[in-house]
Amino acid sequence: MIRILIADDHAIVRQGVARILERTGDMKVVAECDNGVDALNWLRDNDCDIALIDISMPGMNGIDLLKQIREKKPKLPVLVVSIYSEDQYAVRLIRAGASGYLTKGSAPAIVVESVRQVVSGKKYISPAVAEILAGEIGDPGGKLPHETLSDREYQIFLLLASAKTVTEIANMLALSGKTVSTYRSRILKKMNLRNNAELMHYAIEKQLSM
């Protein structure tokens, strides 16, 4: 029996994914969490064969949760299931240790197939992600400005681009306002932008969102 943890802040998504997986007969959802902190707490005292996590969650988002899982349970496969398209997050998260990336619009058969593949020890690379990776291999120096950011910088960039203030971001990420301001300055410098308005314009132009 494949034991599965699902972390997503939408109950209807958790229940829908659980229904798809448990219909196979050899998969069982052993825990459902609506935020990253609860998921991490559950994993401290319990075991499963795979974790399915969303990106946008309160308390601790999927990016930070993935990093914590990699640190505390490095052998646990993590499959990211997100509303965001592959070109926004997939390669970044796979490089950070995710075993695969699915969009929430994926067909049920793909969800089941990806879970089986990841639990068997393989990576799940969709055709869309494979195309992105192939493009990077063919043109390794052709990165867009936002692709040069670290994971934390990218996270803060998206929050700034969504009109969040430095104080709001600091509270969300449990950082000091000074630290967030330092990240903001670094992001603007790396991306050759002057202010938050240009960050927002860039995010809209590239269809990037948190």
Spell out the blueprint of helices and strands.
Layout: E1 2-7, H1 11-22, E2 27-33, H2 36-45, E3 50-53, H3 62-72, E4 78-82, H4 86-95, E5 100-103, H5 108-119, H6 127-138, H7 151-161, H8 166-173, H9 177-191, H10 196-206
Parallel strand pairs: 1-2, 1-3, 3-4, 4-5
Structure description:
- The longest helix has 15 residues, at 177-191.
- Strands 2-1-3-4-5 form a five-stranded parallel β-sheet, with helices on both faces.
- The protein is globular and about 55 Å long.
- The chain folds into two domains: 2-137, Rossmann fold (3-Layer(aba) Sandwich), CATH 3.40.50.2300; 145-206, Orthogonal Bundle (Arc Repressor Mutant, subunit A).
- The chain contains ten helices and five strands.
- Strand 1 (2-7), helix 1 and strand 2 (27-33) form a beta-alpha-beta unit.
- The model has no long low-confidence stretch (mean pLDDT 88).
- The protein has helices at 11-22, 36-45, 62-72, 86-95, 108-119, 127-138, 151-161, 166-173, 177-191, 196-206, and strands at residues 2-7, 27-33, 50-53, 78-82, 100-103.
- By secondary structure, the protein is an alpha/beta fold.
